[in-house]
Design a protein that fits this description.
- The strands form 6 sheets. A 7-stranded antiparallel sheet has the order 11-12-23-14-19-20-21, covered by helices on one side. A 6-stranded antiparallel sheet has the order 13-22-15-16-17-18, with no helix packed on it.
- The protein is built from 11 helices and 23 strands.
- It folds into 3 domains: 86 residues, Herpes Virus-1; 116 residues; 190 residues, Jelly Rolls (Sandwich), CATH 2.60.120.920.
- A hairpin with a 4-residue loop joins strand 19 and strand 20.
- By secondary structure, it is of the alpha+beta class.
Length: 540
């Protein structure tokens, strides 16, 4: 019998009148089964004795006898169902701290699986069964288990909070909508729930985008670290190669220089690790918020969503990473620089060879040229002409000084270019701040944003805080200009003589720099030779 009942379902033992498991089951002549009391009361009320299922009419009221076989089957089914319920109950877990307990359980409170908004009660799996089978209870609204169901009742009117006032942004009951919120815009909880859920999904999508951007930023930082490491390795390799060409007396500086480069790389990696740690922390916070939003979005609990919406509908505070980058270190102070400082003239040749590796292709910017200057078509030559051209007076153009700037901007790192000054009687060369005065009279000096060397009446000058007269052994025909923005260094070289002309040190470059050229007045043809930007041929 137990084996047979285990194959049967509850539906096979339900009375079609009371919709419950048979009590004293009887079979009527047409073959259908009912509870004895149910069919008796049905026929007492009905005009005719008729089967409630197949509508077969009985002219004589049938004599009802309890069907012993079905009764035993029902008993077996009840016992099996009780055993299953007992087993199911034993398998269910007791409610842990923070979990909603079943309100019906006595003794050990099991974990609730649903809460009923009609009964205002939370049920475990066993006690929820009637809500899943009984026709009257099936109409009740079930939600994920929540505590404090009484909090969903209006404290003023003791009615269920089933609407939402948009004006006051609060949940209200039916009476509230008639009295206190009569003139307000009130919508069903579900309608507001759907709207807020949509907003939450949008916020979640935005957070996911923020997470993705931060992941990309991490990749960018890691790539910067990789590039920095490659540059460091390259720098070390070049310095080691240069060391092999120098005398044995300077080999002791090699280890010191390599250590300095590696320390800069370590600082770069440490900075990157700090950025990555911050980004990963933000991703963690964003994931946490995303998880909360996802959980809230899936919730059928209108009240909880609306109550939690104000605190969860915005992304947690994060840092703007748009302009954050790992600062790639410059490896100034490498072996040639170290040796130049210690051995001066002995290694000027090596110094020039070293700075030439930072050569860039400079071209003149016609939008900055004084109207009396003539620029070549390729932007590599400039000289003065007495006739003034009719050019638009744009903000970038020099209106008084016979000057022109290069197009290339120096914002970081190192920068080198060479200019032919052969056969000229007057010239100014160097770099200048982007913001220099271009319209009125100005004095060329480092204080005013110019770092230059100059030729005046066969005398050479550097216009530092005060003019410095330069004593050169030979007249330069080609001048090299080198900028190290990180070190605040601007150096000038006689390329053909492999000699240092002058260096500005400890400079403060608080903005972008541009190559600066002034070919000087024509002087009736005596100074008509142009300044020529020359390609860099590396010193051998």
């Amino acid at each position: 019998m137990a084996a047979a009942t285990s194959l049967l379902s509850e539906d096979q033992f339900l009375c079609s009148i009371c919709l419950d498991v048979f009590t004293d089951p009887v079979a009527i002549p047409c073959g259908h089964n009912f509870c004895k009391n149910c069919i008796s009361e049905h026929w007492n009320i009905a005009v005719q004795c008729q089967c409630p299922i197949c509508k077969k009419l009985f002219y004589t009221k049938p004599e009802l006898q309890v069907n012993i076989f079905i009764s035993e089957m029902v008993a077996q089914f009840r016992q099996s169902a009780q055993q299953r319920a007992s087993s199911s109950r034993s398998e269910q877990q007791a409610a842990k701290p923070g979990e909603v307990p079943c309100d019906i359980c006595t003794g050990t409170k099991l974990k609730a699986v649903n809460s009923c908004l009609v009964c205002l009660v939370s049920y475990c799996e066993t006690h929820l069964e009637p809500h899943l089978t009984a026709s009257g209870l099936k109409r009740h609204q079930l939600i994920d288990p929540v505590e404090n169901l009484e909090g969903r009742m209006c404290m003023k009117h003791d009615k269920l909070l089933e609407s939402f006032c948009k004006d006051d942004q609060t949940c209200v009951c039916m009476v509230c909508t008639i009295l206190d919120h009569k003139a307000h815009e009130v919508v069903p909880l579900k309608e507001e729930y759907e709207e807020k859920k949509s907003e939450l999904e949008k916020t979640e999508a935005e957070i996911q985008q923020m997470i993705q951007k931060r992941r990309l930023k991490i990749q960018e930082i890691k790539q910067s670290v990789k590039l920095s490491k490659e540059n460091a390795d390259k720098e070390i390799a070049e310095d080691v190669q240069a060391f092999t060409k120098l005398k044995e007396s300077v080999e002791k500086y090699q280890a010191r220089v390599i250590t300095m480069i590696e320390e800069k790389q370590k600082r770069t990696e440490k900075q990157a690790e700090g950025f990555i740690k911050e980004l990963e922390q933000e991703i963690s916070e964003l994931k946490k918020r995303s998880s909360e939003l996802e959980k809230l979005s899936r919730s059928e609990d209108h009240f909880n969503l609306l109550q939690s919406f104000p605190s969860l509908n915005t992304a947690p505070p994060t840092k703007d990473w748009t302009d954050v980058k790992v600062c790639l270190p410059s490896y100034d102070g490498t072996v040639v620089d170290q040796l130049v400082k210690r051995l001066k003239k002995m290694f000027t040749y090596g110094e020039l060879m070293w700075v030439q590796q930072y050569a860039v292709d400079v071209t003149l910017d016609p939008d900055t040229a004084n109207p009396k200057l003539i620029l070549s078509d390729d932007g590599k030559q400039v000289h003065h002409d007495d006739a003034e051209k009719n050019l638009p007076d744009n903000p970038e153009r020099f209106s008084r000084g016979l000057c022109v700037l290069g197009k290339q901007i120096v914002s970081s790192g190192r920068f080198y270019f060479e200019v032919q000054v052969k056969e000229k009687m007057r010239w100014d060369l160097g770099v200048a701040r982007e913001s220099i005065n271009r319209k009125g009279l100005f004095r060329i000096s480092c204080k005013n944003g110019y770092w230059t060397v100059n030729l005046r009446n066969e005398k050479y000058f550097a216009f530092a805080e005060t003019p410095v007269r330069l004593c050169l052994k030979s007249k330069p025909e080609k001048v090299g200009v080198f900028v190290d923005s990180e070190e605040g260094l601007v150096s000038f070289y006689d390329v053909d003589a492999s000699a240092l002309i002058y260096s500005y040190t400890g400079c403060s470059f608080n903005e972008k720099l541009l190559p600066f050229f002034c070919p000087g007045l024509n002087q009736g043809g005596k100074n008509s030779t142009p300044l020529i930007i020359s390609p860099v041929h590396h010193t051998e």
